[in-house]
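Example 3.2
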Amino acid sequence: GPPTPEKNEPRVRANRTKHHRSPSAK
């Protein structure tokens, strides 16, 4: 149970950063 949310946490964080870079580059 604990290993599942831990792996998902970094994935969602990386996805959010990529999305945030798009508007910032504009």
